[in-house]
Design a protein that fits this description.
Length: 242
C-alpha cells in the first residue's frame, strides 16, 4: 500500500473510480448547474445508484467478473423490463466505451496506446522509486509500447468486444438500429487489425514472421479462433492504485 490520501479516503477499494464517481456526482448536482433537478427523490436515488455502479465497474479489477457475467446472461435473453438487466447492459456499455480507443482505427488507437503506456511506465517508475513491486507490463526496462498493447488487446480487449458485439448483433433490432451488425463487424475488425499492427511493431518479433499471420475479420471462417500462441505472456493488465 502507498498510504496515499486517496487510498485512505476510499479504503483501498476501486480508489480512482470511487473518486471519479464522487466528484462527478458533486459536479452534476451542484445548485449552479444541477442536471438532475427535474428528477423526483426516488428517481434521483436510482440515478445515483446507477452512476456509482457503472463507474465503479470500470475498475479493471472487476473486468473478468463483469465480462463473464455478461457473457452468461446474453444467451439466456435480456428482460428489458428488468432493472438489473438494464443496469448490466449500461455498465458494460460504459466499460467498453472506457476502453473504446482500442477499437478505433490504428491511426487513432496507436496514439492513445502510446499515451496510456507512457502513463503505465510512469507508474512503474514511481513504484520502483518507492520500493514497491512493479505492476506487470509497467516496467519500461522489460517491455515496450507494442508488446504491452498487443498483449492487452489480445487477452483483454478482444474477448470483451466479442461479447459486446455478439450482444449488438443479437439485440440490434431492439435499439431500432439497422446498422448494428455492420457496427459490430467494424469494431471487431478494428480490434483484430490493431492486434496485427502492434504485433508487427514488436521489437522481439521478426517483421516477416508477424506479417505472415493473417488478419481475421468477423466474416472469415476462422474469426472465432485465437491468434496463434507463439509464447507465454506474464499476467494481464493490472492497475494498482493503492
Amino acid at each position: 500500500m502507498t498510504r496515499h490520501d486517496l487510498a485512505i479516503n476510499y479504503n483501498d477499494i476501486s480508489i480512482l473510480e470511487n473518486m471519479h464517481a464522487s466528484k462527478g456526482w458533486r459536479l452534476c448536482t451542484d445548485p449552479k448547474h444541477n442536471i438532475f433537478s427535474f428528477l423526483s427523490p426516488d428517481e434521483l436515488k436510482l440515478m445515483r445508484e446507477l452512476i456509482i455502479t457503472m463507474v465503479i465497474d470500470t475498475d479493471m479489477a472487476r473486468h473478468s467478473t463483469l465480462t463473464a457475467k455478461f457473457a452468461a446472461k446474453v444467451p439466456m435473453g435480456i428482460d428489458w423490463t428488468n432493472s438489473d438487466d438494464k443496469k448490466m447492459i449500461l455498465t458494460m456499455l460504459l466499460h467498453c466505451s472506457d476502453l473504446g480507443n482500442t477499437a478505433r482505427g490504428f491511426e487513432i488507437a496507436s496514439k492513445w496506446g502510446h499515451r496510456v503506456t507512457d502513463e503505465f511506465f510512469n507508474q512503474g517508475d514511481k513504484e520502483k522509486e518507492l520500493g514497491y513491486p512493479i505492476t506487470p507490463n509497467m516496467d519500461r526496462r522489460e517491455s515496450d509500447v507494442a508488446k504491452c498493447q498487443m498483449t492487452f488487446l489480445k487477452f483483454v480487449i478482444s474477448p470483451l468486444f466479442k461479447e459486446w458485439c455478439d450482444f449488438i448483433r443479437t439485440f440490434g433490432n431492439s435499439f431500432e438500429c439497422p446498422s448494428s451488425s455492420k457496427i459490430a463487424d467494424q469494431l471487431q475488425t478494428n480490434v483484430n487489425n490493431n492486434i496485427f499492427m502492434w504485433l508487427t511493431l514488436r521489437k522481439d518479433v521478426p517483421v516477416e514472421q508477424a506479417k505472415a499471420i493473417p488478419v481475421e475479420t468477423p466474416r472469415s471462417k476462422s474469426f472465432s479462433a485465437k491468434l496463434p500462441r507463439r509464447r507465454n505472456f506474464e499476467g494481464g493488465s493490472r492497475v494498482n492504485e493503492n
